[in-house]
User: Fold this.
Amino acid sequence: MRLICSRIALLILVLSVSACSEVRIELPTAEFVDEEKPDSFQVSFTNGKPADLALQLNAADVTDMFITTEDGTSASATGVDLAEYIFPGKNIFKASAGGLSSQVAFYYDTEGPVIHILNTNRDSGIVSGYVADDSAVASLTLDGAAVSLDENNHFSTSFSDLPFNEFTAVDAYAQVSSTQYARKDQEFIPGMSARLNQGGLAFLADALALQLGSIDFDAFTEEQNPLIGFSILGLFGADLSLKNFSFGEPEIALEVLDNGRMATVVDVPNFSIGVEVTGNAVFIPFSLGGTLILDNVHFSSDLVLDIVNKDLDVEMARTKVRLDGFQLDFDRIPNILGIETIIGHIFGGLSNFMSPFFVGIFEGNILPVVSEFIGEMAINVSVTTTEDETLDVSVVPTFLDTFDNGLTIDLGATVVAPTPSQAATPLLGSLYRAGEMPRIGNTTPDGADFDIGVAISANMMNQALFAAHEAGITTIELRPDNMPGADPAGVSVIQSDQDDVQTTDLIGLSLLPASAPFIKLTKAGSASGVIGWHDVTLEFDMKRVGWSDYQNIFSVTFNLEAAYELGATDDGFLQIGVEQLPTIEVLASSNTGLIQLTPTFMNNVVAYFMPVVMPTVVANMKAIPLPRIAGYSIHPKDFWITGSTSNNLVMAGNLIKVSTTNADSAPNTILAFAGTSTMEEVSSAAAISAELSINNGEVTIGILNVGANNQQLEQRFRVDGGKWSVWKPRSELTLRRLLGGSHDVQVCSRTAVLKQEQECPTVSFETTVEEQPVAEDQVEEI
Assistant:
């Protein structure tokens, strides 16, 4: 009965639109390819220009840019007028009217071919893959040797086991691409570069002042007393002890010099030291006490910073001490023979003793503080996922320089998978691009100051992604117990009457990548680039009542690109966050035919599940540690791209004392949801709940991101207990392509000094199907 009704509705729709004007795309023609942008765009109408005509070029509405002919049979626009909406590679021109639409894909070919590596056997020395280009591939070489291609541009060729291998490909328009792969054992020098500016060094001065102000001189001298002893011709002798030290608050000044040095000046005012002398004068015992007064102890020295055996080394040179206002007052002076001589020796002994005494004390306290403050730049750590996949990360200092009121430390970096997964496809190496890493200055490109910055090479990031692939982190099996939405209720939002998915079915997904993900650095809005992933196969499995195990139903192989944002994890690693919908290009599909499923359903499985999977995938690839300063956290504030080849990402931020964070008051998240007219403050104990009908799988949650005293807050979120997003200021949160069933969205806030909310509120809702969604803008038809 339902099928009959659907056919009647379709017939009514056909009859209703038959009298309307149909819109057809005449130019550009489908699959048009050229190294120049199209000269013109043209659409035609069968019955005059439709009133609801909509023309879209990629994501832009260009309807108003078309001029209709006098007879109303067509409309056109020049390529010059639409040039800003045409991008290199694939473009989509779409025309809609009367509830119907059509589209054509055309290609603006400005780049050379793309290399896809599908397998590498280092034992046999054979690498295989294929070359893709919008036009045609003219030639391919590997390390200068010609490579043969079959009719589908696939290759299988020998390679030399070199640190770097380079493919060079040329297309029909003589456009050349050079693709290099770095062998997995390469150390990138530098892979990172850290910069500590004057604002960061001010925290070092604070740490030194705190340390010097807490020196327990009495404890130090108690074991050493008597500190001075002398004898005069055997007739006069005395021992001198110091005790009861008191002094004012130390003042520290650090100045960055050239050649890896920092001038360090310490002033400690108002020193008062108790002096006790015991001895004998011509065999007559005596004792006297007094106070040594110093108006100020002035200490100056150069901190000499260097790299020794791949570790930071700190020493002090050119140390000087000046004692201002030296004054010794005795409580009483005994009337004994030779007391003037004894006092003279006491005064001279103290004068000679106090300078090296303070040098030893100050150097002994300054060096450990400086070493600890910057000593955590060198990092050797193993990162293990919940699935016991491990990445070994090594970041070691290789070069140090001081300039422009700051300290720069270059770091060599490697990320490897110590135990490669048998399930991971062996590859040639990680994507590599030659280029220098410019020094970070003392301001951002916009002129803003920052405490600490770090430049990270895309080569290191791609090595980390390659290691994650080799460790098996990107090979994923999803079942209902570890993947929300992997059930009939979840896929109900993409299911039609022609899709045979039953309520008792168990659904499983497997992600089987033939290649490692890779990073492309391109600054656009809040995104810092795109993460690409080629030749990924998603297998859709099902277990039906009566089946002994899961059976493969269909598989889809695709390329994916998703914009990413950056932040820092709570434990000090670079965080890659994917919140925007990915763009997916379907390459191939296969259907076992066990059950009836439509191509649209297969398309939408990829389109709806990959936005859910990607945040988890990138979160598990946590492998790039940020520079660490003892007792401080880094609050990222800005990101930009540097280098002649735009191959380095710079993150700049401020240092926040951990003690400052701990002392701050925790914020509360205030949310508005599902059409509520006012913002509501909620906690985990009183979560918002609502019945929500999904309209194309999208819901928006409003966020008030202003806390106490009008300070701006940052938020992060997670969906259905998944991985946390990056921290950033948010006024609302829009979730798209939600699967059917129950959902929990948890939102947390933190203050400007990184104090996090203690109990984060959760928005819970049930989704039902209002209308079947279409994901045509983000995924190609199979």
